[in-house]
Amino acid sequence: MPRVDGMTDSNRPPIDFPSRIGVWWASETWAMPNAIEVAQEIESLGFGSLFIPEVTGKECLTQSLAFLSATERLVIGTGIANIHVRIPSAAETGARTISSLFPRRFMLGLGVSHAPLVEHGMGKTYAKPLATMRDYLEKMAAVPDVIEPGSGRPVRLLAALGPKMIELSGTHADGAHPYLVLPEQTRVTRDILGPDKWIVSEQAVTVGGSPEEQLQWAHQHLNVYSGLPNYRNSWLRQGFEESDLVHGGSDKLAKAIVGMGSVPAAAASVKAHLDAGADHVVLQVLGDDPMADPRPALRELASEMDLV
User: Which residues belong to any copy of the Luciferase-like domain (predicted)?
Assistant: First the structure.
């Protein structure tokens, strides 16, 4: 396994993670000065990264630059930057600029998003995901080296669930960012990619509340995803059945995907992805409000985990 700083004997681009466990947090409804305070405490608690989404709110490259500027060692990643939001050259040059200012501290996670969001929310065409992503990456790679000379291209991860997209994350990118998967799927991803590509897996957890409340939070979290073909197909490949794919997921699905119970149980669900071959795991704290302040739960988790 790689050292914390990401240096290996392979030629993959290095990332200086302060620790192997980070945070996935949607801060889109937060005023940026307040969100920065959260990022700064995430860093002070010993977490190694902050990964942020891009759905319908804030533009993620601007947010990434703000978080990097306000922290010292924290790695910032996009989980994920929607390729339908910007043309390939804008994604490449924007990420190069960030990487040149904060070398080895930024990961550009890219994803094809979902048909309902792209077609109804953005008024665009959702074509074949694999071909669309391959074409996008090839156009990014074609941006000449005169743009941010000497900085090199940014480290790219793909939101990869199916085997073909995982393969593409190895041939055309630097690895994968699995989301809402079991540790066994992280192992499958590692088997496909081999040892020389990055895997940054996401793991949702609950902290506090009664068992009934934790299960409710998990179902609430899975509600939107359970209606999206990408995730439905992913869960079927992972061994779940059609009966598990009801809105919000079955209890079986929710309990398997989300780390529930005690703080040690939540921490163990994160460690399981590391044991399965992830280089880095970003935990996502669930509750009544998906954009609530994660710090109370993160303080408990940080005291439980060996973050280095």
Answer: 29-241
